[in-house]
Amino acid sequence: MTYLPHLHIASEDDVRKGKTTDIYFVRTKQILDAKGLSDRRVVAEVTPSSLPENWRWAVLCGIEEEMALFEGRNVDIYAMPEGTIIRQKDHRHIREPVIVIDGPYGEFCELETPLLGLICQASGIATMAARVRKAAGKKLLVSFGIRRAHPALSPMIDRAAYIGGFDGVSSLKGAEIIGKDPTGTMPHALILVMGDQVAAWKAFDEVMPPEIPRIALVDTLYDEKIEAILAAEALGSRLDGVRLDTPSSRRGDFAEIAREVRWELDVRGFDRVKIVASGGFDEVKILELGDAPVDGFGVGTSISNAPTVDFAMDIVEIEGRPIAKRGKLGGRKQVHRCTNCFVDVVALSRAKPPICPKCRGRMTSLLKPLMKAGKLATKIPSPDEIRESVLQQLENVNL
Known about the structure:
Layout: H1 12-16, H2 23-34, E1 41-50, E2 58-59, H3 63-70, E3 76-79, E4 85-86, E5 99-104, H4 105-108, H5 112-136, E6 140-143, H6 154-163, E7 168-169, H7 172-178, H8 188-194, H9 197-207, E8 215-217, H10 224-235, E9 241-244, H11 254-267, E10 274-278, H12 283-288, E11 296-299, H13 301-304, E12 310-318, E13 321-322, E14 333-338, E15 344-348, E16 363-365, E17 368-372, E18 375-376, H14 383-394
Helix pairs in contact: 3-5, 5-6, 6-7, 8-9, 9-10, 10-11
């Protein structure tokens, strides 16, 4: 039989039907069905087992996809809103549940694997984006990382980056799902195929519609400073910015390069031309630039290949009785957060909301109804609304 190549991706229907799960959940369901136990009602909690790289907080992302996963399943789901800044543990070191599932175990046991996968990776990307946003302050941030990941994931990657605080994304599909136009400049390939930098910059200016910013890539063949001057002379007042994308092996002192480029543009009257940097940036390298005159960053691999947040799902109640495996705490829980000082308290769900142990302020409950018997129980927020919420919360945390 002749083998034909395929894209190795699962369809949305495959994921919803549990075809991307681990085999032991399938076998568990078969055993429970055979023994008449599939309808036992359980409460399961999803908690972060750990946060990577000594992160003190993370951004919860992927909740909208959880809605799609559980649609039509006879379960009730409570979750923190997408974009919530989460912690692994509260002030007493009790793990904080971010999702609670209540229903017959047979309804969702085969979905545990995709349930976790949908939030583990997306939350890692959104968190790294938020950390880069904290480091960059108000500067422009564009997600450039989709070429470092499987193309089937490009919409998720760019959506998570945008939710985490980025201003724009490069992929067509990613931009489509957040309701924005894709953002990008030009590749080195354009300059090489055109034959020289000036020809490429002028062609870009001639062909692209006027609403597309004229940002010239200025490190293909010559020194960045020289190419920036050439770009300014070639496009004049139409030049909006220059992008520095020197590979790390040739970068040298990037801050000094940016200062040189800024000086040479300014002395020629191009002080309004922005400087955008790309190529290997993360929150640490952005902070290391200090006061270097960089107006924005294209950030790629550190976003698309961000470490995942290690979530786990555990049963904490069966038929109304608290139960848990070793290392976990039984009983259905709620997470309360102080609206003043951002302190969290985990308590049993039946308990009254506590008073903040730090400032004695009012606390709000974070786990909200998401689905009832497999039907939506809340409004789906837009990516813009989620992003704005993340940006507001970032004011309460530090890197």
